[in-house]
């Protein structure tokens, strides 16, 4: 069980705002964070990881206090048993695949068995002697996942881990993530903009906007997804996102830019869209 109330001042493009999020995650939950660019999703993940320090509130993970403003307690990031996977893999370039995992597993009893098991689970055994530069993006992301799991974390944080990958690789890795969850039942917080990915992986979706929780609800089932609509790019946003006007309507959505050549305002594109039903808390 993870219980949190995290408060952090944000300096946003719209002026000062406050991230203020209260959540309770039952063990094994896969919680998806969604919401527009600048909503505070990455900030919330960094607060959970201890990479950024909250201004107030508390964070309790399986009975252990990781942060308490009231009690002046703060567990530094290296002492938090969590795995963090970023969009850009963040592997050690001078280490082989096996060494990347060994670094993370250091100090664990039976580190060697843990590493061998993860290499096999993520189909990396053949690639173990290679360095990251000799791997494809999808392979690097599998190594990043294996490395996060090698720490035997109690919480897995995934910051758009698959968004830089092509669709086929993304689908394969979504399956790998689903398999990993079945095997380890790790409580997971996943940032994703992709309703289909959320539907495949998450048990609940929290939508943030300007630092606040605006909706909480179950994901739409995969079977209900897949409506494809045409759109026109009206703005290219920081962080590789596009603001898109849907099919001649006044509706604007923000989506990660599909891989390929850069988009510019006026470009047409096809989007696979879903409306996620949600309830207000
Ligand atoms: N350390 C910080 N201190 C104060 N404000 C910050 C800090 N880091 C980011 N911000 C601001 O907080 C807002 C939320 O940023 P954050 O990166 O969490 O958004 P996001 O929802 O992850 O967006 P995206 O989908 O574009 O990655 C942004 O306006 C950002 O400029």
From TrEMBL:
Family matches, as Pfam families: ABC_tran
ABC transporter domain: residues covered: 1-235
Signal sequence range: none
UniProt xrefs under SMART domains: AAA
Protein name: ATP-binding cassette domain-containing protein
Domain of life according to the entry: Bacteria
Chain ranges passing through the membrane: none
Keyword annotations from UniProtKB, A to Z: ATP-binding, Nucleotide-binding
Cited SUPFAM superfamilies: P-loop containing nucleoside triphosphate hydrolases
InterPro entries membership: AAA+_ATPase (IPR003593), ABC_transporter-like_ATP-bd (IPR003439), ABC_transporter-like_CS (IPR017871), Molybdenum_import_ModC (IPR050334), P-loop_NTPase (IPR027417)
Gene Ontology terms for molecular function: ATP binding; ATP hydrolysis activity
PANTHER family: ABC TRANSPORTER I FAMILY MEMBER 10
